[in-house]
Amino acid sequence: MIELIESGGWLMLPILLCSVVAMAIIAERFWSLRRHKVAPKHLVAQIYHMRKKNQLDVDAVQALKENSSLGNILSSGLMNVHHSREIMKEAIEESGRHVVHELEKYLNTLGTIAAITPLLGLLGTVIGMIKVFTMITTQGVGNPNVLAGGISEALITTAAGLSVAIPSLIASRHFRRQIDDIVVYMEQEAIKLVEVIHGQRDASVMENKE
User: Fold this and answer.
1) Residue ranges covered by each domain of the chain
2) With contact defined as beta carbons under 8 Å apart, do 176 and 107 qualify?
3) Which of 113, 114, 174, 205 has the most crowded Cβ, counting Cβ within 10 A?
4) Maximum Cα–Cα distance across the chain
5) What is the pLDDT of residues 74-132, one digit of tens each?
């Protein structure tokens, strides 16, 4: 492996650095975006029943805020539960923007890695081919080993760049789609909470989840 890296030239170093960063981001996002931790099911129903039993005090709202991203959003609405529907929705929307920003953390970096590593590989290809033609100019084509070294460097960097870019791009698209699904679900749950509290939705739906 070390010989392969050395034969790829100095451009293998930034490509390897990108691969390490990409792996770390992918592992971190897989852990952080677990659905049951970000947006637990039936959380609105639990909140409704806690409120019905007068258990929704300040400590309960704070615990709700800290337990999940959805809980964070809903707690913002609960802190304004005695205000109008519009104020409650505004508080939820403001909190939601911060939560979505947190969910998308590092994805721009992952997308950048997916974009630049093929370019680094292409740059390595160009440098390798320049070396090949320089050698042809100075030494002719009589030494195939020298020519093979330059071509090998070009091919190794290209392969390395693509090997990092492809999984990074796949992971980036996967996480963005996952976040979109989570955001839609959280929006639905937030609207459900506002409407139930303000009597605009039949609370019997919540009773059935008990």
Assistant:
1) 2-207
2) yes
3) 113
4) 89
5) 998 888 877 788 888 889 999 999 999 999 999 999 999 999 999 999 998 888 888 77
